[in-house]
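#help-structures
NK: newbie question, is this the right format to request a structure? protein is Ubiquitin-conjugating enzyme E2 D1-like isoform X2
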Amino acid sequence: MEVWDEDDFHLQNPAGEIPEVAYWSGESGLSLPAPAPFRDDNISDHETRLQLGISEYSRIRLLKELDATKKDPLSHCSCGPVGNDIFEWQGVIMGPECTPYEGGLFFLSIHIPEDYPNSPPEIKFKTKVIHPNIDEDGTIHLDILWDRWTPVLTIEWVLLSICSLLADPNADISFNPIAILYRNNREEYNKKTKEWTRKYAMC
């Protein structure tokens, strides 16, 4: 199994191409591919899952997700396990074009619970970033990482959703200082965000 770290973590498809099939486009113009439900006819039966055990089923599911990302890599984000631990991954996102994050590479830690996909992965930004929906410690306030998670989603799809969140913050539900700045002074917000992107995401 491959080892992923910030020194040699390479995007699998750095061409910057946006997938043609899209279901969402925010004010930034970033389009994302429609999520395909994860299906596995070989291990979808409930009794089979019980026989395998929760953690073993999770391991098989993660290996299949990893194989899918290698066969059909995305252009602006990538992910993979750290060392030999299938439950510890790292992700990287290219800053969306036409946003204050453009040109940056943002690394994320991905901890996967042993009952995955019944529970969502725990994903945090490792790279410092200014954003209305991201806390100082990297915690991401995204609904599908909390109450709107469903087992048909994949880690790759969550990364795509984080890409869209970078491009189009949901500042109306946040009341931290960055969200207030975003709502009241967009020019100053963009300036500050660009400075942090240059300082922390372009090293």
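mod (FA): yep, format's fine, and the tokens are attached above. The radius of gyration is 17 Å.
NK: thank you!
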